[in-house]
Write a structure and sequence with these properties.
Blueprint: H1 7-43, H2 48-51, H3 56-70, H4 77-105, H5 118-152
Helix pairs in contact: 1-4, 3-4, 3-5, 4-5
C-alpha cells in the first residue's frame, strides 16, 4: 500500500488552487463585460476590423503575459499560470454561450451564431473555446515566464542588476 502524500504537498496543492482562483477572479469579471461589448458593437454595425481586438482570446493572451511577468518569482510559476488559465477560461465562455442562444433565438445574425444545436454550442464554446484560450495562453505565458526568469538569473556568477 503506497504511503499517503505528505501534508505539506496537500497544503501546497490547495494553496496553489486558492491562489490560482484568486488570480482568475478579476479576469473572469472582466470577461463578463468584454463579450457583451463586442456583441453590441457588432449589432451596431461597427466593422469587424475595429471590434476584432475586443475578444476573449486577446484578453487571455494579455493575461498570460501579465501573469508570466508577475509570477516569475513564484516557486511553481508554470503550474500556477496553467491552473489560473484553466480556472479563467471556461467561466469566461459562458457569456458567449448565452449570446449564441440570444442570436439563434432572435436570428440576429452575429458571428456568435455558428452552431446549430445546444450540444454543439456547449461543446464548441465551453470545451473547444476554452482550449482555444488555454493552449495559446499557456504557450505565451510559459514563454514570458522563461524569458523573465532567464533575465533574472546571474550571468557567470555576477549578481543580476536588472530590475523589473
Amino acid at each position: 500500500m503506497p504511503a499517503p502524500p505528505a501534508s505539506g504537498s496537500i497544503r501546497l496543492g490547495s494553496e496553489m488552487i486558492k491562489r490560482a482562483l484568486r488570480l482568475a477572479a478579476v479576469p473572469v469579471l472582466i470577461s463578463l463585460f468584454v463579450t457583451p461589448v463586442r456583441f453590441f458593437l457588432e449589432l451596431a454595425g461597427i466593422p469587424e476590423v475595429y471590434i476584432f481586438p475586443i475578444g476573449l482570446l486577446w484578453l487571455t493572451l494579455a493575461l498570460s503575459v501579465f501573469w508570466g511577468i508577475r509570477l516569475s518569482a513564484e516557486e511553481h510559476p508554470y503550474r500556477l499560470l496553467l491552473l489560473s488559465l484553466i480556472f479563467f477560461s471556461p467561466p469566461s465562455r459562458f457569456p458567449v454561450f448565452v449570446l449564441w442562444w440570444i442570436t439563434t433565438t432572435w436570428e440576429l445574425g452575429t458571428h456568435y451564431n455558428i452552431f446549430e444545436s445546444w450540444d454543439q454550442a456547449l461543446i464548441g464554446q465551453l470545451f473547444y473555446g476554452s482550449l482555444v484560450q488555454i493552449i495559446p495562453g499557456s504557450l505565451l505565458g510559459f514563454l514570458t515566464l522563461a524569458i523573465k526568469r532567464h533575465m533574472a538569473r546571474p550571468i557567470d556568477g555576477i549578481p543580476c542588476t536588472r530590475t523589473g
